[in-house]
Design goal:
Elements lengths: L2 E7 L10 E6 L3 E9 L7 E10 L4 E4 L2 E2 L2 H6 L2 E3 L5 E3 L1
Antiparallel strand pairs: 1-2, 3-4, 4-5, 5-6, 7-8
Length: about 90
């Protein structure tokens, strides 16, 4: 989550794809998921969360590992691997 900071369109030329550069500012939450198709027709697929970061929950999860778990435990904040913070 964040707000759009800037949009910079590239010079348009006939026959070329139109491109835009985006800038997002004030990001407070970010998730990156990867979908893997095990079959050619896409009928068998799995979804894996690679990154989860939330500023207000003080959570950073990379490949299922909660990077801030020890710091949060020292402050009395418990978190589960879904990134949902609970006051403890």
């Amino acid at each position: 989550m964040g707000r759009l900071g800037a949009v910079n369109p590239t010079a348009f030329r006939r026959g070329d794809l139109m491109e835009h550069e985006f800038s997002i500012k004030g990001i407070t939450h970010y998730e990156l998921w990867m979908e893997e198709n095990a079959s050619a027709d896409g009928s068998q697929s799995s979804v894996t969360q690679l990154y989860y970061w939330d500023f207000f929950e003080n959570v950073l999860i990379v490949d299922g590992y909660n990077v801030f778990a020890q710091e949060n435990a020292m402050m009395g904040i418990t978190t589960d691997l879904t990134g949902q913070a609970e006051a403890g």
